[in-house]
Design goal:
By secondary structure, the chain is α/β, with parallel strands linked by helices. The protein contains 8 helices and 10 strands.
Length: 236
């Protein structure tokens, strides 16, 4: 099976291609403000590197969030369009789950964190001791203090923190958890679509494939535009 997976939940987009459970091409690129112009050309370049065309892909997969509203929306729309063009199914995965998968078969719990702005973080807490991560705290958006309170109530053991949110809120994490907080080295702060390939393949085998129209973003909170519309409706 040939699988194309992308993650655009952060400014560092990731693309991966797998053939018969082997990663044959992968790319990380900074798409801050340039996602729409760079994503499809980079996908085409990677496919050419792998000796494939869009028509050769059997399963199209994308992270559906949480993360950057513009990034997640753009990535989902791109995968939808490609899958529709060749009549192939899609699979979805969490951007936090693939970040947690940077720590496979790890006995220590992993907290992936992305910067949600507005003094909040997108985060979760995963048990990564098996090949696929299992959530102890499901994907959420919270102020760091509230998140750390949940983590402290869940476990008294050390926790690995990874992602741009972990970098931004480093001092708050240390203040609350002290030496129980373990921070990932910088190469492991980036979500990797190669991990999304594994999640997509698992979903496919579990019968969780979907039509392109069913691939929808999960934002966890309303966008500023939606909030402004609601405020106008309510006269605020």
């Amino acid at each position: 099976m040939n699988i194309l997976a992308i993650d655009t939940s952060t400014p560092l987009a990731s693309i991966a291609v797998a053939v018969n459970e082997q990663i044959v091409a992968e790319s990380l690129l900074n798409t801050n403000r340039t996602l729409s112009a760079r994503l499809v050309p980079e996908i085409e370049r990677l496919l050419a590197t792998a000796g494939l065309t869009i028509a050769d892909i059997d399963l199209f997969a994308s992270s559906i969030g949480p993360g950057s509203f513009t990034g997640v929306r753009g990535g989902v729309a791109t995968i939808q369009g490609l899958a529709l063009a060749v009549g192939k199914p899609c699979a979805a995965f969490s951007s936090l789950a693939i970040l947690a998968m940077n720590f496979p078969l790890q006995a220590t719990l992993v907290c992936p964190m992305l910067d949600a702005r507005k003094s909040e973080a997108y985060a979760a807490l995963y048990d990564c001791s098996a090949p696929l991560p299992s959530p102890c705290i499901t994907d959420c958006v919270l102020p760091p203090a509230a998140l750390l309170g949940q983590i402290a109530a869940t476990t008294g053991e050390p926790v690995i923190f990874a992602g741009e949110g972990a970098v931004r809120y480093h001092d708050q994490i240390v203040e609350r958890l002290g030496d129980r907080a373990i921070f990932a080295p910088f190469p492991l702060h980036a979500p990797r679509s190669a991990n999304g390939i594994l999640l997509a393949l698992h979903a496919f085998r579990q019968g969780e494939r979907m039509e392109p129209s069913q691939l929808l973003p999960v934002y966890l909170r309303a966008s500023d535009a939606e909030i402004n519309r609601e405020n106008k409706k309510s006269g605020k």
